[in-house]
Amino acid sequence: MSDVEASKPQKRKKGWVDFLVNFRWILVIFVVLPFSFSFYFMQYLGDKRSERKSYKQRQIEHEENVQKVVERLKERNPSKDGLVCTARKPWLAVGMRNVDYKRARHFEVDLSAFRNILDIDKERMIAKVEPHVNMGQISRATIPMNLSLAVVAELDDLTVGGLINGYGIEGSSHIYGLFSDTVVAYEIVLADGRVVRATKDNEYSDLFYAIPWSQGTLGFLVSAEIKLIHIKEYMKLTYTPAKGNLQEIGQAYMDSFTPRDLDQDNPEKVPDFVETMIYSPTEAVCMTGRYASSEEAKKKGNVINSIGWWFKPWFYQHAQKALKKGEFVEYIPTREYYHRHTRSLYWEGKLILPFADQWWFRFLMGWMMPPKVSLLKATQGEAIRNYYHEMHIVQDMLVPLRRIGDTLEWIHKEMEVYPLWLCPHRLFKPPMKTMVTPEPGFELQLKQGDTPYAQMYTDIGVYYAPGAVLRGEVYDGVKAVKNMGNWLIEIHGFQPQHSVTEMTEEEFWKMFEPELYEVCRKKYGAIGTFMHVYYKCKKGRKTEKEVQEAERAQPETAYADIEQPAG
């Protein structure tokens, strides 16, 4: 074989799993979409029933449900019952990571009742919500008041609990940080049954800073108090094309929201919302948004685009038009803008239903979109699940903004996935060693986007089949994700744990800071009760041996005889 032939990409042999994947759309149309629509409708009715109750009644029910959790924890026999986790079925999780830890022996606690908005305090500008409240539910409640959470993750189904215990971001995160940065208080049920309220300045401040990224392994989150902001009825959105190589596109993205004079806190220079979508190695569209009143949006000559209608083009395809028509501006109703990627699941909908973006499908069946992610997972089976792990990328990479160009080039070389989603966020300098921290000493030499109290990072959303897979070539997705972890460790980046990780435990703790997390695990009795965060995120089934070793790490029972939860 010649050197030229040896260097040619090898074609991948297709099997029966490829056939199932290619024709999965039949199952999605006739089973998943109808069931998804029915589920969303029933969920909507449940939300409406909750809204008819007074905040006082919801709080009473909340306290009753918290007491049930306390009583359930006290029923556990640590020597027999295994580690504690929620009773939610593994396939119900929105993230693409397999919830394999629930396949080991465990003790279930049902938190399904925690799905109420407990209070919207317009004076304190705080929303108190339970962990299963999702983004669609909270935006329906707050936007009519011209209020909003400071950070509203794009997909309707994402829950408060998942965004706090894991990771959450939105186009306003370059101002407010990650979702967890907008929380002012957590209500937590600890392993011993105590119910505590953790804030940044009370006796549980260490727990307050340890909860984000802990994946629910320090206690059960039963409510959160989250910052609200004043908003307007519309988002004035500017679409700006960017062309060049990946380094030049990265710089255009930075310039769209970060002043080169480092005046990052100046609202005149920094937009309210930011995102960029890269469609190829040479083309991208940068979008910047500012809140606008109805009066401004309806002025003569302004274009209003209600993108929320089911028959409208998918948002990422609509934005792509800027590559041909040049920069343009339009006004989008605020709630519709918040959830602009829900219908198409960014661009994943194109892989699930290849024709779902066509006008005839959008008009006839678009009202049933999107398929519920949990139902997609429930109907895929083990073989298809493994296929997606090897042939499909669903990852977020959080990297210092100054490394955006280098990381885009790395992704093109290792994964070749397009489109890519870019969304910036502040990474605040914490008073304690939390799991995720800025680069040491960043404040001594500020870069574009940085301030003395926060380093600017960016999320790079990598969601699609790699180019090699689309061309029918051999591709090692496991190796690519492994290499991604190593790259992130090298540049002080982070991999959110809603997706598959290939890191060893040693590599995991090179990426994340363990000090505060481990102190809180011991201090609040989580050892021997809740699974360790690495083993909860670890790929593959959790063996009985691993569970037993985790349990033996806490020789004494974690439970105290507590009759009433303490506020």
UniProtKB/TrEMBL annotation:
Its EC number is 1.3.1.72. One of its GO terms (molecular function) is Delta24-sterol reductase activity. Residues 52-231 form the FAD-binding PCMH-type domain. GO terms for cellular component: cytoplasm; membrane. Residues 547-567 are annotated as: Disordered. Its main location: membrane. It is a single-pass membrane protein. It is found in: Membrane. It comes from the Eukaryota. GO terms for biological process: steroid metabolic process. It holds the Pfam family FAD_binding_4. Keywords: Membrane, Oxidoreductase, Transmembrane, Transmembrane helix. The chain crosses the membrane at residues 21-42. InterPro entries: Diminuto-like, FAD-bd_PCMH, FAD-bd_PCMH-like_sf, FAD-bd_PCMH_sub2, Oxid_FAD_bind_N. PANTHER family: 24-DEHYDROCHOLESTEROL REDUCTASE, DELTA(24)-STEROL REDUCTASE. This is Delta(24)-sterol reductase. It comes from Cucurbita moschata (Winter crookneck squash). The lineage of its organism: Eukaryota, Viridiplantae, Streptophyta, Embryophyta, Tracheophyta.
